C-alpha cells in the first residue's frame, strides 16, 4: 500500500496558534501527501477560523466540544481514522523531509509484534533550554539495555489495531507528560515491542526560560511516575 493509503498523522492542538501554523507549513514544505487530522481541543477561536487554507495538504479538522487534553484528543484521532497506521506529532514541532516515509517504511517492514516506532527529537538551536534538552535526549525514546522502553508523541507511528486493542491513551492524563510512556508500557504488557529510528527527525521548539523548562521537567517526571502504575493496572478507555 502507498503512504497515502497506509498512515494518517494525528495532531492534538490547544493554544500555540503560531506554532500550529509553523507545523503545517513544515508539512507543506516536506511534501506531505498523506492524510492529516488536526484535533482542535476547544481552542477559544476555532482552528478552522484562525488557520489559513493549505491547498497542498490533505488536512481535516475535528473540534472537541470542551478542553479534554492531548490524550483524549489523540483518542479522537484514533477513532476517526481508517488507515492501518496512525502517526502522532505535537503542535510545537516542525517536521523534516522524509519523516513519514522513514517511520512508515520501518514499521511496515517490522514483524507484527512491533506495535510502534519512534524517531529522534532535536531542538531548533534558538536557546540553551533546547540545547540542554537535546543533550539529555529528553524527548527521545528511552533505551534500556538495548530495549526501547517508551516512545514520545512528538515523533512516532503505531499500528492502529494495537492501539485499539489496549484502549488507546489513558484519558486521565489531562496535561502532557507521561501519557506516551504509559501507552508504551501497556503495549509491552500486551506482548508488543516498540523500536527506534534515529533517522526519523522532528525539530522541537522549546520555550527559552528556565522556569518553563522546570515546569516541563516536573510535569514529565510526575507523569512518568504515574505511568509506572500501569505495571499493576490493566487497559483503560475500553472501546
What does this structure look like?
The protein is α/β, with parallel strands linked by helices and 239 residues long. The chain has one domain: Alpha-Beta Complex (Spore Coat Polysaccharide Biosynthesis Protein SpsA, Chain A), CATH 3.90.550. Helices cover 36% and strands 25% of the residues. It has 9 helices and 10 strands. The strands form 2 sheets. An 8-stranded mixed β-sheet has the order 3-2-1-4-9-6-10-5, sandwiched between helices. A two-stranded antiparallel sheet has the order 7-8. Helix 8 runs parallel beside helix 9. The longest helix has 18 residues. The radius of gyration is 17 Å and the shape is globular. The protein starts with a helix and ends in a 12-residue tail after the last helix.
List the helices and strands and how they pair.
Blueprint lengths: L2 H4 E7 L3 H13 L5 E6 L6 H4 L7 E6 L6 H10 L5 E4 L4 E3 L3 H11 L4 E10 L4 H9 L5 E3 L2 E4 L5 E4 H6 L13 H11 L3 E12 L5 H18 L12
Parallel strand pairs: 1-2, 1-4, 2-3, 6-10
Antiparallel strand pairs: 4-9, 5-10, 6-9, 7-8
Shape: globular
Trace the largest sheet across and list its strands: 3-2-1-4-9-6-10-5
Helical residue percent band: 25-40%
Oligomer: single chain
* Average of the residue pLDDT scores: 87
Q: Would you list the SSEs in sequence order as H and E?
A: HEHEHEHEEHEHEEEHHEH
CATH architecture: Alpha-Beta Complex
Determine the N-to-C terminus distance. Answer: 27 Å
CATH superfamily: Spore Coat Polysaccharide Biosynthesis Protein SpsA, Chain A
Secondary-structure-based class equals alpha/beta
CATH third-tier fold name = Spore Coat Polysaccharide Biosynthesis Protein SpsA, Chain A
How would you sum up the major sheet?
8 strands, mixed
How many structural domains? 1
Which consecutive residue ranges, at least 5 long each, have pLDDT under 50?
none
Number of strands: 10
What integer value in Å does the Rg equal? 17 Å
Counting DSSP H or I runs of 4 or more residues, the number of helices is 9
Amino acid at each position: 500500500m502507498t503512504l497515502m493509503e497506509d498512515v494518517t498523522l494525528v495532531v492534538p492542538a490547544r493554544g500555540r496558534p503560531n506554532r500550529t501554523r509553523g507545523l503545517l507549513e513544515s508539512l507543506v514544505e516536506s511534501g506531505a501527501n498523506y492524510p492529516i487530522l488536526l484535533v482542535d481541543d476547544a481552542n477559544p477561536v476555532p482552528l478552522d477560523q484562525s488557520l489559513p487554507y493549505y491547498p497542498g495538504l490533505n488536512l481535516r479538522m475535528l473540534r472537541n466540544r470542551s478542553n479534554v487534553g492531548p490524550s483524549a484528543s489523540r483518542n479522537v484521532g484514533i477513532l476517526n481514522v481508517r488507515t492501518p497506521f496512525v502517526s502522532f506529532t505535537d503542535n510545537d514541532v516542525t517536521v523534516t523531509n522524509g519523516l513519514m516515509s522513514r517511520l512508515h517504511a520501518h514499521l511496515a517492514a517490522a514483524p507484527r509484534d512491533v506495535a510502534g516506532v519512534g524517531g529522534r527529537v532535536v531542538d531548533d538551536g534558538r536557546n540553551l533550554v533546547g540545547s540542554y534538552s537535546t543533550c539529555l535526549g529528553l524527548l527521545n525514546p528511552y533505551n534500556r539495555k538495548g530495549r526501547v522502553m517508551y516512545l514520545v508523541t512528538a515523533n512516532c507511528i503505531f499500528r492502529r489495531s494495537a492501539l485499539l486493542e489496549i484502549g488507546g491513551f489513558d484519558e486521565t492524563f489531562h496535561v502532557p507528560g507521561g501519557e506516551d510512556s504509559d501507552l508504551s508500557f501497556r503495549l509491552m504488557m500486551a506482548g508488543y515491542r516498540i523500536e527506534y529510528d534515529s533517522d526519523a527527525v522532528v525539530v522541537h521548539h522549546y520555550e527559552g526560560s528556565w522556569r518553563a523548562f522546570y515546569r516541563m521537567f516536573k510535569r514529565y517526571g510526575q507523569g512518568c511516575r504515574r505511568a509506572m502504575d500501569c505495571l499493576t493496572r490493566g487497559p483503560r478507555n475500553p472501546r
